Prior knowledge:
Blueprint: H1 3-18, H2 33-44, H3 48-51, H4 59-72, H5 77-99, H6 114-125, H7 129-156, H8 161-185
Amino acid sequence: MRVNVLFAVLFALCTVVLVPAGVLAHCDTLDGPVIQDARIALEKGDITPVLKWVKEESEGEIRKVFDKTIKKRSKGAEAKEKAELKFFDTLVKVHREGEGAPYTGLKPAGQVEPIVAKADMAIAEGSVEELAGKIAGHISSAITERFERLMEAKKHMNESVGAGREYVEAYVQFMHFTEAVHKIAMGEAAHHNESEKPESKEGAHKH
Length: 207
């Protein structure tokens, strides 16, 4: 498997099965990649750097706010700050809507999850081997932990109804986790908070 594909799969696995939903969305932070490009665009007076973050049909709205922001930046520090925050807010809101993800407002800088910061660093450095290795290790440990719990519960599942239920709980957790890993590895992962694609006809365990 090529390194860039491996990174995409492992990062998606870590995102979906190791981290609570929504926690990795960092494009709404003031030090996230969207705002970083927005600051560059404002300094250059050129909207081009931010257009990649929005859908084509939303360009008009972003251009309009950008032009207003450029004009207000010359009207004093307070007006400049307010105009820039409005531009940042609108840009991120439109970007999130384009992803089909919720938006609850801009977040302060410094709230990016460690895994996301490391992923951004890997991109900046052009090397993903270390990050991919660490995530692969986490995935392996998580699967092994669930499997060992399942096998231990299996030894006692017929001793009582309670023991049987513990086995079923361990079985369900192991199967759901494994299915999630397999689905993402096969390229069926949803981006951020998008809805998951329907399962294939090959069948998956339903519990």
